[in-house]
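Support request from a user on the community tier.

User writes: "When I paste my structure tokens into the form, the page sometimes reloads and wipes my input. The last time it worked, I copied everything first. Here is what I submitted, just in case something in the input itself triggers the reload:"
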């Protein structure tokens, strides 16, 4: 699935050599959240991702915009870990 502007857009990718046990794997990839404070869009994003029921969630950086934005970003990441329970986990990089 592809998330842009708070909207989830499913994206099917065909990989010819993908092992059969991975066919149908649902991955949610979120990047460039740039959290500056608590926003309603974060609530919508959490609800949308949870509703999509991904098997794994990948968070790939740019969580904050400026120094001092760390507390709300950490709060949002905690909410992701608490509210979304993909069977293969949540993985993130800074």
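"...and here is what came back when it finally went through:"
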């Amino acid at each position: 699935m592809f998330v842009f502007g708070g909207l989830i857009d499913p994206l099917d990718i065909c990989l010819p050599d993908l092992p059969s046990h991975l066919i149908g794997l649902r991955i949610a990839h979120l990047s460039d959240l740039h959290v500056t404070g608590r926003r309603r869009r974060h609530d919508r994003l959490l609800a949308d991702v949870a509703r999509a029921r991904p098997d794994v969630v990948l968070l790939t950086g740019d969580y904050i915009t400026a120094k001092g934005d760390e507390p709300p970003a950490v709060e949002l990441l905690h909410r992701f870990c608490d509210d979304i329970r993909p069977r293969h986990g949540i993985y993130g990089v800074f």
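Agent notes: The reload is a front-end session timeout and is unrelated to the input. The beta strands are 2-4, 7-9, 27-30, 56-60, 90-93. The chain has two helices and five strands. Escalated to web team.
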